[in-house]
Write a structure and sequence with these properties.
alpha/beta; 2 domains; binds S-adenosylmethionine
């Protein structure tokens, strides 16, 4: 017979004593068995409860993390090929590209390697011959040629990168007496120093083109002694170039400040060449801002320059330049400081 209720455990002593001893053992055995089954059930239930509590905690933590992450503002990342970069600078400093220079910068001293690869470090994805043709097209305009071929000619490159443009141009123009390169990334600028080391006309400095004070101070401080101070005076450069650089500032206001900074360094009548200007958002690609011609015209109303050349780069046949153009601007009046205090 089974004892379905726990009440059996509470059988009175009187009744127990009246049961025969075999029967008594039987009852006690059943009672023990029941009690141990009960314990097992309790343990299983306890384990189940603990599991439930942990699942609850885990779910709560998961939900809180999801909520927290979705409430964080996501930094927009720039997609180039299959890789994403937070800023254009991160792209230009990309280890994978810069590591191509090889151990101990050996490749940077090898002219054959440089011919084939240097421009590629600045993400110009075309062969050497096309690169040289691109460089000569940048300076082919009559007004530019007449300044470039007249010695002494002082040239300023803004966003000079790894020095691919300066290296090619210095090899072609003996008339150039001085070439200063301004580059935001110190890491990238260092490469330009190494590749142009043999050329005493070249100097590379690190500054950001939209930082008026920083750029001016950097150029002024580069004077090794007072006798050569004149070369770094505001208003002393004959020609400046921004090749694939201006579109990396983020707003029209920064475009205006950057142009102001560039013109400050040019003499009156000096020329500024600006290439890879995206006309539309679609032609920006890695750029931050579209700079259609009306923007350049608008800014010319507050800075003193005239647009002497516009050239549609989509017809050049070098890389993908669809909907991009180049301008040559001439400084027509005083912009920024124009004299240099030699007693400073
Ligand atoms: C496409 S590369 C062109 C390099 C060079 N001008 C040439 O033609 O080979 C653009 C360069 O501009 C630099 N740059 C971007 N923003 C800059 C800034 N605000 N000031 C100075 N340089 C900047 C980048 O670091 C990069 O080296």
């Amino acid at each position: 017979m089974l004892f379905p209720s726990i009440g059996i455990m509470k059988l009175s002593n009187r009744r127990q004593t009246t049961l025969p001893s075999r029967r008594k053992q039987e009852v006690e055995g059943k009672a023990n068995e029941f009690s141990s089954n009960n314990k097992k059930v309790m343990i299983v239930m306890q384990k189940r409860n603990i599991r439930l509590v942990w699942s609850g905690i885990a779910f709560f933590l998961f939900a809180a993390t999801v909520l927290l992450l979705s409430s964080q503002p996501q930094k927009e990342r720039m997609l180039v090929g299959k890789k994403k970069f937070a800023t254009p600078l991160e792209w230009f400093e990309d280890e994978k590209t810069l590591n191509k220079v090889g151990e101990s910068n050996k490749n940077l001293l090898d002219d054959d390697w440089l011919d084939m690869n240097l421009h590629r470090l600045s993400h110009w994805e075309f062969p050497h011959k096309e690169w040289e043709s691109y460089v000569s097209k940048l300076v082919r305009y009559d007004d530019v040629q007449s300044v470039l071929k007249k010695t002494p000619c002082r040239m300023l490159e803004i966003g000079g990168g790894v020095g691919a443009f300066s290296r090619s141009l210095l090899r072609s123009y003996d008339s150039l007496s001085e070439f200063t390169s301004i580059e935001k990334s110190a890491k990238v600028m260092e490469i330009s120093r190494i590749v142009n080391k043999k050329d005493a006309r070249f100097r590379a400095l690190s500054a950001s083109m939209e930082d008026s004070k920083g750029m001016r101070a950097t150029i002024a401080a580069a004077a090794p002694d007072i006798s050569s101070w004149d070369g770094r005076c505001p208003g002393s450069y004959d020609i400046a170039i921004m090749s694939g650089v201006l579109c990396y500032v983020g707003t029209e206001d920064l475009v205006r400040i950057t142009l102001d900074n560039a013109f400050t360094e040019l003499r009156v009548d000096g020329l500024l060449i600006i290439s890879i200007l995206p006309k539309t958002r679609e032609s920006m690609r890695s750029c931050e801002t579209a700079i259609p011609l009306p923007m350049i015209e608008r800014i010319s109303k507050t800075l003193q320059y005239e647009i002497i050349t516009t050239d549609d780069m989509s017809k050049w046949g070098t890389g993908n330049q669809a909907d991009r153009y180049l301008v040559v601007l001439r400084k027509t009046g005083k912009i920024g400081e124009s004299s240099c205090d030699h007693t400073e």
